[in-house]
Design a protein that fits this description.
The protein is α+β, with helices and mostly antiparallel strands and 156 residues long. It has one domain: RutC-like (60s Ribosomal Protein L30, Chain: A), CATH 3.30.1330. Helices cover 31% and strands 28% of the residues. The strands form 2 sheets. Strands 1-2-7-5-6 form a 5-stranded mixed β-sheet. Strands 3-4 form a two-stranded antiparallel ribbon. 40% of the residues are buried.
Length: 156
Amino acid sequence: MSDAIDSRLKELGITLPAAAAPAANYVPFTISGNLLFLSGQLPIEDGKVAVTGLVGRDVDVARGQRAAELCAINILAQAKAALAGDLGRIRRIVKLNGFIASTPDFTEQHLVMNGASNLIANVLGEPGKHARAAVGMASLPLNAAVEIDAIIEIEA
């Protein structure tokens, strides 16, 4: 399945970056049994936060969706690092938790999260369909517009 995932990434024009190093006192992932827990990923592109500010003020929904896509790409990069380069060990994305920095009156966090959900489902197919949360936040680290963490079932 790893070859199929790599092929799908290539078809979609996605190159996974190197997994980001932790920015504070935490680890980027932990494995417990057959579950991989990934720390929150920011919309990092070319080594910097690519989408900053509050959705509903500084960022529109489309740009917020791009931020969520970048978070999803970084989730896949972290998963690849955690799984010694073998994304084929992913059985299912169990849950994505999305945190969207947004204005108090913004209520379309779910649409922003579609950027990540669609990308993950497009790359992984059926195993990429997941439960999720999309929560509005007052602010996020480094002024990122979106942060997403993941719980992934893996082959042990």
